[in-house]
Specification:
single chain; 6-stranded parallel beta sheet; 15 helices; Rossmann fold; transferase; 2 domains; alpha/beta; 14 strands; 8-stranded mixed beta sheet; about 400 residues; Glyco_trans_1; EC 2.4.-.-
């Protein structure tokens, strides 16, 4: 099958390609898995650096860089006026020697460009939003920083896609509230690299105190301040927070300064350690060094961090929201807490740190769950079946 994956955003800059690149890494892994299954896969992203080649061959698939918009990295909102041009470029590209049988849009900008390109064809379109502006706004409130046109454009996009891919049960609910029929939404969770994230291997150095690890980024939406305030109820434990600006210093990072102020006010400044950004292939060592991994974001579309921790055999304590609620099985692979309940969060962390046998059992169950239900092979297989279904729907009936 010929598959076109449209991101529209540029990929991560060269200096951070080996670091965890979030959703771009998700798209790259899906492309590689589909190519490994014998499909012809092409990924389309915007060219933001004139020194980059227009095409590249990576892991069996082809990346095509679209020369539309400014030749620099730019904010998402600035790309909206360029969507029609992106769509026209794709239309022209797909009327040549290579035409996709199915197009899969990623992010809302990628989906808009893909929908514009196929609107006068019979090519079906599948869409993964990765996050939804309406849901982010509801959970983050004044910390929501998305462009104003995002929410109405996402709503319009739901009207033209053949199928939407949700990454959690909460996202299914949000998409149906936006008007999509339930039959037009399918849950395909993100996968985890079970060859990289394993219980076996080196662990990052630590002291004798119990260690709680929080990973995934450094911005107000990750809820690290809740963990810091909960430490007052935990006792003598170390909270390690990874994430931050690539190549930058945490001294000049606004969220890092804010978290340190919260720690000072809470009387736990000596228990907090901000380590900055960690390369993706070094994260397993950090997970293995922890007694618990805590996930307390106000909004979590996918459960990537819990899955990585679980694959490393580490129990997860997290807020029962989004992908965290789907991936963590309460009292089996970790514990779930109502979002924003700092008192229960602190008590749960303290009790679980004191229960070695319980953590051991949770860790073993976590590895089994990650390896059985959340491999990239399963993700690719689910997408493959979805593509076959939407293509068969669009094909004209035989005479």
């Amino acid at each position: 099958m010929r598959v076109g994956l449209v991101c529209a955003h540029a990929g991560p800059p060269q200096e951070v390609r080996n670091r965890h690149a979030g959703t771009h890494q998700h798209v790259a892994r899906v492309a590689a898995e589909l190519a490994g299954r014998g499909h012809e896969v092409r990924v389309y992203e915007r060219l933001d650096d004139p020194d980059l080649p227009p095409t590249s061959e990576i892991a069996g698939y082809q990346v095509e860089r679209v020369p539309v918009g400014p030749s620099r990295r730019t904010a998402t909102g600035e790309l909206v006026p360029h969507v029609p041009e992106l769509g026209r470029w794709l239309t022209e590209r797909w009327t040549g020697e290579w035409t996709p049988e199915v197009v899969h849009g990623h992010f809302w900008i990628g989906g808009l460009a893909a929908a514009s390109a196929v609107r006068e064809t019979v090519i079906p379109i599948v869409q993964t939003f990765h996050s939804l502006g309406a849901e982010q706004l509801r959970h983050l409130g004044r910390d929501y920083a998305g462009p104003g046109q995002r929410i109405p454009l996402e709503l319009a996009l739901t009207r033209v896609v053949d199928m939407a891919v949700a990454q959690s049960s909460d996202e299914v609910d949000e998409l149906t509230r936006m008007g999509l029929q339930r039959a037009s939404v399918v849950v395909v969770p993100t996968g985890v690299d079970t060859d990289l994230f394993t219980p076996e291997g080196e662990a990052a150095p630590r002291d004798v105190r119990p260690r709680i690890l929080a990973a995934g980024g450094l911005n107000p939406g990750h809820g690290h301040e809740d963990l810091i305030r909960a430490l007052r109820l935990v006792g003598d434990a170390e909270l390690v927070i990874t994430g931050g600006p690539p190549g930058g210093t945490l001294n000049n990072h606004a969220e890092a300064r804010r978290l340190r102020e919260v720690a000072e006010q809470s009387g736990v400044a000596d228990q907090i350690r901000l380590v900055g950004p960690v390369p993706h292939d070094e994260m397993p060592a950090w997970y293995r060094s922890a007694d618990l991994v805590a996930c307390t974001p106000r909004y979590a579309c996918a459960g990537r961090v819990p899955l990585e921790a679980m694959a490393c055999g580490v129990p997860v304590v997290g807020y029962a929201t989004g992908g965290i609620a789907d991936t963590v099985v309460d009292e089996v692979t970790g514990r779930l807490v109502q979002a924003g309940d700092i008192r229960t969060l602190g008590i749960t962390l303290r009790r679980l740190l004191a229960a070695d046998a319980e953590r051991f059992a949770y860790g073993h169950a976590a590895v089994d769950r990650a390896r059985c239900s959340y491999t990239w092979d399963r993700t690719a297989s689910a997408l493959e079946r979805l593509y076959e279904r939407v293509v068969s729907r669009r094909q004209p009936a035989a005479s």
